[in-house]
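Protocol step 4 of 6.
Sequence for TANC1 protein (Symbiodinium natans) entered exactly as in the expression construct, tag removed. Do not edit the line below.
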Amino acid sequence: MSSHWQEKDWLARQPKPCQVCSGSGKCIGCLGIGSNPVMYLAANVNRHNTKGAYGRRLQGCDGCFGFKQNMMAELKKGTGRCPNCDGWGKIRPDIDLTSPTGRTKRNSICAQPTGRKLTSAWSGL
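Step 5 output, structure tokens:
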């Protein structure tokens, strides 16, 4: 019976697939590229456009820490990695180190440690 609980404890400590990227590790906003295409429209169409390049351009993905700049700034791409799992595709469970058996916080009785020290009536003897 003890091995059954050890196996459950071992399974609880194993990394789980990331629910945001479905285990791929790629940013879902840009599909791992780090940038997204945007369309800049011009008010007037002529040959001598002085305000910059209009049309389809790349913009940094803010989902993976890139910057959404306007058409005048330089492209600052994102990492392309899922911000939830940092590109690993798996999430490690939080381990409650205050628990004597090292249960995961999700499965522990008290998710937050109380910080109180257990004292016994017999400790003074």
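Step 6, annotate. The chain has two domains: 9-25+82-110, 28-81.
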